[in-house]
Amino acid sequence: MEVFLKPNTVIEPLFDQWYAWPHLISPATSAMNVTGRHLKIMQSFLKAPELHATAVRNPKMKGGPFMDVKMEQVDEVRQLMEDTYQKREYQVAFSAAIKELDQLLKSHKSGYSMESLYELVPEILKGYVELVYDLNNHPAYRLFESLLYRSKLYDPQAQSIALWVTNNDERPFVLSTPRLKTDTDTLHFQIPFSHEVIDELGKMKRQAAAPEKVKTMLGVSQEDEALFTSFFTTDPPPVYKHYTGDKIRIRYFGHACILVETKEVNLLIDPLISYYGYDIERTRFSDADLPDVIDYVLITHNHQDHILFETLLPIRHKIRNLVVPATTAGALQDPNLKLMFNYLGFKNVIEIHDLESIQFEDITITGIPFIGEHSDLNIQAKMCHHVSAGEFSMLFVADACNVEPRLYQHIREYIGKVDVVFLGMECDGAPLSWLYGPLLTTSLDMTNDQSRRLAGSNFERGKALIEAFDPKEVYVYAMGMEPWLEFISSIKYTATSIPIIESDKLIAHCCSQGKVAERLFGEKELFYEKSSVVQ
Question: I need a labelling partner for 36 at 20 to 30 A (CA). Which of 170, 468, 474, 505 fits?
Answer without folding.
Answer: 170
